[in-house]
Amino acid sequence: MTSRRTSFRRTAIATAVTAAATALVVGSAPSASADTIWNFNYNADVTSTIKKLNQTVNFPRGSAKTSINLSTRQITGSVTLPPASTTMAIAGLPLVKVTQQVEQVGSVTGSLGDASAITVTQRFNIRITRVEALGIPINLVPSTCITSTPVSAVLTGKLGGFYDPYTLSGTYTIPKFKDCGINTLLLNLAIPGPDNTLKATFSLKPGNV
Predict the structure, then answer these.
(1) Is 209 a member of any domain?
(2) Residue 132: which domain range?
């Protein structure tokens, strides 16, 4: 009997860890029985390509947490990413440095399907915190510059080995920006639009197993 219980527990832990690694974005879950909810911490490495600019934004490594309900196979979570800066040309202007911050809206939600397939939905706003012409350290946007509505991104992936990193990816539409001062029009000509890509790789932090 003890051997069977030990085997069941190891199987449950393995299932929880691999499923949890799918949440692009991961965080504390709703309270529930400790027998059915498992929580994990991850490193999150995220990149996004803005189609209009043909520009890839590489976010510094972030921290992610996720929870999975073993009974319902539902995933909930959140992610925290540092601001990311990149150099690009906007609407034909000289090269500028743009700094953006991703602000999550609500929890990331998803599910674990058949054949280790996972699907999660993440909603977030994009706040542009700084735009400056190269060589001129003057911010050209106010702190209120943000997407007019939240982004909604559906990300999918597949689970692999127990300790391996897991990747989720998908496409999303960037809405128009608002409250960006005199540069609102230029930003809306240069950035918003469909078919932008998002890719997130999660790796377990030490101490999870």
Answers:
(1) no
(2) 2-204
